[in-house]
Amino acid sequence: MRSRDAQPVKRPVILAVLALAAAVFVAVSFQGPALCLPPICHLPVSPSWPFNPAGLSGVRIAAVFVAFFLMAVLLAVALRRWTRWPTLLIGVPVAILLSVLVVDGASPIGRWYAADGTPLNPDGHPLVLSVELGSGHCGWQHVAFLALAWPPDRPVPGGFMSDPRTKSYVWQTTSAYPPSSLATTPGVVARLPADAEDTGLHRGTWKLWVSPAQLTTGVFLTSGDTIEHWAFISRFVGCA
Predict the structure, then answer these.
(1) Which residue intervals of the chain are DSSP H helices?
(2) Sign of CA dihedral 102, 106, 110, 115
(3) CB contact set of 174 (below 8 Å; sequence gap of 6+)
(4) CA dist., res. 87 & res. 69, Å (int)
């Protein structure tokens, strides 16, 4: 009689391995920002999730979840101590938590960091760079706003939105923020301008690039091969 360890690998395990490989392939290769895993990202979970206006696509979010869940299942099978229900009860929450962290780490919304890793804009300190979602009661919950002190090595104190040293930009895939108030249209571009400079400011895999000649046109956020052009706000629209 063959021992339990000598039994052939069961078909569900083979299918799980193949599904895991497929999920990882989709998560890594599908077009979009580069994936970012804590603690490399230096990120807590932020209120920007699950809306991810400039982050992973829905396909990649699903692939990340499936990958983590299958890893939990395969670990349970390897240990050969858990039945199906404990595996689900443990695997699903772990997969959700890890997926949230990855999706959040792949979003430019939230706390940014200086080149040396120092968090920007601690409470009570002047503005260097802020990237946040708009207000829901204005209908801007799907609009991302970027406020930048220029030059970045000269932080702007309180009331920065009215300070001429502050430049503001928008990312959106709709027309929620009036396009007539923007100098250009935000969108993904093929390449950076020839004079683009890396500011050193970053969040996870995202980096902020600026073109001195195009500051009143837009700035550029990059993650992996993705290059996003955020449009300059040429005329502010108020929201009560």
Answers:
(1) 11-29, 58-79, 84-105
(2) positive
(3) 142, 143
(4) 9
Neighbours of 48 (CB within 10 A): 20
Determine how many CB atoms are found less than 10 A away from the CB of residue 127.
21
pLDDT at 228 over 90: yes
Characterise 117 by phi-psi region: left (phi > 0), alpha (psi -120 to 50), beta (else).
Answer: left
Structure tokens at 117: 């890793």
Prediction pTM value? 0.84
The tens digit of pLDDT for each residue in 149-207 reads 999 888 998 767 778 889 999 999 889 999 999 999 999 999 999 999 999 999 989 99
Q: What is the pLDDT of residues 131-140, one digit of tens each?
A: 988 888 888 9
Please give the Cα distance from 172 to 157 (Å, whole number): 27
What is the 3-state composition of the chain as percent helix, strand, coil, each rounded to the nearest 5? 30, 20, 45
